[in-house]
What does this fold into?
Amino acid sequence: QFLMANKLDTAMWISRLFTVYCSALFVLPLLGLHEAASFYQRALLANALTSALRLHQRLPHFQLSRAFLAQALLEDSCHYLLYSLIFVNSYPVTMSIFPVLLFSLLHAATYTMKVLDARSSNSLPFLRNLLEKLNANQQNILKFIACNEIFLMPATVFMLFSGQGSLLQPFIYYRFLTLRYSSRRNPYCRTLFTELRIVVEHLIMKPSCPVFVRRLCLSSISFISRLAPTVA
It folds into this structure.
């Protein structure tokens, strides 16, 4: 009854579980490397479906207008719909599947707890304990996802020069990264950029750091800072 009363949430729960399943079989290619590539695409397509359903839930009345598009781009679900479209037809990159896997795992875990609560307050204690441990580490997981999002930017450039990526991919991914940096719901991308900058500046200011390395790092920090969008 609980599942039928929340059909859209249930559909997203099922698609997230399927995303976790496909992502796991890509990361751990138990069925062979050829099959792993197909699971990579299935995971991203399932994530795109979940993101589209979530976006529909957040913005139920679609309008073909600039104002609606601007509003949609503020939603995290729209960001990851774009993310899935960027990588679904590209060369499989293990780093790109982790945000999809972990976000799906976190959201699926939250809804699974609701399903267990609707069934009985004491049902499946082992699974409850596992889900509670996962939720307790949510902040660390979100930071790891943000780290993946950041380091995928140079990875897309490397893929371009190695012949495994398209010319447009780094530019479209840069747009995705600016959306994540400006996210209202998830500040972890901004936080990680700040933390990485502090760590790098601390290291290069040590006397043992060569001068040319210090200048290169300071120039890179200045360049990246200019590319960062303004956050209200």
In short: The radius of gyration is 20 Å. The chain has a mean pLDDT of 89. DSSP finds eleven helices and no strands in the chain. Residues 33-58 form the longest helix (26 residues).
